[in-house]
Amino acid sequence: MAVKTFAAIDIGSYEVSMKIFELSQKIGFRELTDVRFPLVLGNDAYSTGKLSPDMVDALCEILLDFQRIMKEFAAEEYRACAHSAFRELINPVIVVEQIFQRSGIRIEILSNSEQHFLGYKSIAAIEAGFKKIIQKGTAIMDVGGGSLQVSLFDKDALVTTQNLKMGSLRIRERLKELEKTTIHYDQLVQEFIRNDLMSFSRLYLKDRDIKNLILMGDFLTDTIFREDLQDRIITRAEFEKRYEAIVHKSTSQLAEEMEIDEEYASLAVPTMVICKNFMDIFNAESLWMPGVSLLDGIAYDFAERKKFIRSAHNFENDILVASRNIAKRYSSGKNHIQGTTALALAIFDSTKKMHGMGSRERLLLQIAVQLHDVGKYISMGEVSECSYQIIMSTEVIGLSTKERHIIASAVRYNNAEFKYSSEYERDLVVDRDQYLMIARLAAILRLANAMDRSHYQKVEGIKAVLKDRVLELTLDSTMDLSLELGLLKDKVDFFEEVFGIRLILKRKKKA
């Protein structure tokens, strides 16, 4: 049975770490080694938007060490991910290329939604515990150096995920000077984050009962909560007791007690204050700290894609549910979306041999259908542009920034005049593959949406037959389709232009 060795590398705001895993269909994935180096990249990134030459030198040295360790373990493949600190850089392409030339490690900068989706997968890797706990109202909280991500679950479904710029390192940097003037640093942090907490509570916690809080990452389990806890779950009372024992101590005291560097110890109070405040607004009964990190999520994702493991949880459905909730927030018509989705997928599936797009592109099409009308919430006259801006400003868990742009552009060109490649090249917005994908998804979306122009869901079924570059769509309906068929000409023309086929629309003959 095939066994593969894989290295996951995480370039974080205050630490660079690597885990090497052994993967096989028999065992899934098993950790072989865990290597960590403290390196506070966030100080430079959050204050100046650049990394100093010394910081780049230090990072390259660490990555060269990782290369040597990977060779010792015969790691065949790796994935190196950077996130919050690198997203703040004004010159990320230059820095990433320089690091590659010097270390041989190609860094991938994750979007915020990609980062936290992988983190979420690291928790889901603990199948039994995760599946059981999210049956009740549950929040997953990921306190990073630069930001905080909160994802809410209810009955095994992802309700919403939101990013707040209140990471432990960012808070520490903002309050560094003020900390010297107070003996109640914890209260200072609490006041600093209060407005964001209240806004989050008002917008997303109406009538929502959160019983469990899952804390992602391994900062607290490696420092404050190092002792073994049964099931890694602590009650609210136990957390509050530890909170009082921590927040009134100086950084030097904490560093000595936890046997860690002061730079690292200085993140303890902001992290504890954030956790306590969320436990309070959720009124959570307990806190589960599984001790997993982004590295476990990277390995889980790789093992899943390479079919070493098969997850019991449907992650693709989480992305669709998150999209559906965004559409709901902007009052999009539920029945119209369902009807248009069925039509769009029927067209996509019937032309698959011709367009060559796969399951990921099919998912992007479904999300585009879900979100194609959100702009009406802002302006009935500028639906396309408002929809584009809303999608580009809204994170959808599991999607990269590139994928979000593809969806937003397909939605924009659902109604707006399509911008051809020469204009894209002038703007330097997308590459060739993205441009073609936008055109294809927009063509399918236009056609499917026009078939439900009246929003009556007149088309009850659709039969698609592709033969000799002629696509014949037979529409099944007991209602009058005059409006829909009469307004389809420009949609058909664009569809034929994009796919290079002839499209024939027929109505199913009545029995």
* CATH topology heading of the largest domain: Hypothetical protein af1432
- State the helix count: 25
**First-to-last CA distance:** 57 Å
What is the CATH level 1 assignment of the largest domain? Mainly Alpha
Describe the strand arrangement of the main beta sheet, using strand numbers: 8-7-6-9-11-10
Instruction: Give the overall shape.
Output: globular
| Mean pLDDT across all amino acids | 86
Structural class: alpha/beta
CATH architecture of the largest domain: Orthogonal Bundle
Overall number of strands: 14
Low-pLDDT regions: none
Please state roughly what percent of the residues sit in beta strands, choosing from under 5%, 5-15%, 15-25%, 25-35%, 35-45% or over 45%. Answer: 15-25%
Oligomeric state, counting identical vs distinct chains:
single chain
Our Rg estimate from Cα atoms comes to 25 Å
Count of spatially separate domains? 3
The CATH homologous superfamily of the largest domain is named: Hypothetical protein af1432
